[in-house]
Amino acid sequence: MMNKTTIDFRNAFFDAFYDIASVNNDLIFLTADTDADSLVKFRKNYPNQFVNTGVTEQNAVSVAAGLALSGKNIFIYSMVPFITMRCYEQIKIDMCSMNLPITLIGLGAGLSYSYYGPAGHGVIDIAIMRALPEITILNPSDPISASAFAGMAYNNFSPTYVRLHKGSTPKIYKDNESFSDGFKIHKKGSDCCIISTGIMVHRALEVAEELKLQGVDVGVIDLYQIKPVNEEFLLENLVNYKKIVTLEENTFIGGLGSLICEILIDNHCHIPTKRIAIKDEQCFLYGDLNWLHKNYKLDTISIIDEILRF
Amino acid sequence: MQEKLDELNKKANWLRLEVLKTAKKTGGKGSHLGGTFSCIELLVALYYGNILKFDPSNPKWVDRYRFLIGKGHVHLALFHIWVDLGFIDNSLLDSYGKNGSLLGQQLNNKIPGSEYNTGSLGHVIGVGSGMALAAKLDKKNYYTISLVGDAECDEGSIWESVMFAGRNQLNNLITIVDRNWMSVMDILKEDDSTGRLDEKFEACGWKSITINGHSFEDILSCFSDLEGLNKPLVIIADTIKGKGVSFMENDVSWHSGIPSNEEFDLAIRKLEEKN
Prior knowledge:
By secondary structure, chain A is an alpha/beta fold. Chain A contains 12 helices and 14 strands.
């Protein structure tokens, strides 16, 4: 870790958004009545670029499409499940099928709404969103990447989905980091490579440090761009490992582990691979995020145990 | 005025004939005669009655009126209008129903004349609201008009958007409901949900006008004083599904039915008599 100070993902993202939107009046922000501290200033200073659509996610995506068809670049904000599943057809037809410059910002990736229950959890959104052909999916792992993805989304000029952790983490990237490769090799190893995404990258780094003390040399990759994946370059960096482990805060169905397995199989790359993810169930247990992770064996000790047994 | 009305009536009859012929020729490839015939006068009034502003040589002209179709299964009427006005070539329409055609049973926004990818009901009031909002932000004078079916108004997303447009006083947004009183399976005649559409829109902050959707005089009168609007406008156009061919009228089986040879000859005769 470069710095233990933690920064909230929302503040990092929306502060960057503020800087972009304040000099680009084609950028319109729609919220389906979801708030963030750092949005208050934007709403006050740029009322023409801010619309609260009310609790209408389907309408919000359609309105965004109408604005985008009229030359605007749109950011829409709500909680992960509501800005993806609730309005999936509007995303497919209004936003993706016409390839419009609209960015969906989902708050609450993984289990970060830990006291909310399954309605608020973001553990199956990657599975459904990556089925959309036109979309780019960005999954920041720290405040620096969250901040950078505001600009990447604005400049993408096509359908984009950014999923934000609800909470803070320390930085793992340097301030001027480039995110053009689609993934980042945080650590090279010789035995096993952990591919992770989002805040679980922090856990992967902890696991790698612990395992190093036990004589196991583990690499860590942050796949922050879930779609499209920079496949060729990723494979180049995987082929020499003896084992691959995927680590994510999604269910086993259709998320990071699935997509890595698809890439490996499609490219005849038969490296033994282990998926670590959340059990295929809707979680009705409540607690803080660390407790939920432990419950699903996503804590450092459980992961180390899994890897050593693999 | 009477001359203009006669002209429009003639155009409507021409359009029904063309749609019927294409439907018969390509039978079963997507034509929906019932719900197309119910809105023929509405479409003809918009395109030929000086309501929509457009430029076929520049389909994306920035000041054009935006016309969004919710009930995309009326595609055949639009294809014939677009050929007639010069948006698309006849050769493109000739490909309809053939393998590999760019024209299908829904509208694609890449086709000149079309604004939106149709096929899923209940989206266009929202998309139209976005366009109307953009016009306000950019200080443009164009109107955004959408056409939806009455059964389509069962979609929840319609009401999300109706509330949004009302709350934001989008007085440059117009929705026309083709109220032919039928869904795919049922007659909606005694249905409060369909019968009290005017009250539902009004409760959400819209102005409503209910008209005879087959009367050009009625349709044109709705657009005579748009500048006085201070809220979005819904035109509830009472129509007859299958209008123009007596045996198709008010019969749910003509939602997507294709006429037999005898029925086709009879329908053609009935329409030609009106010329």
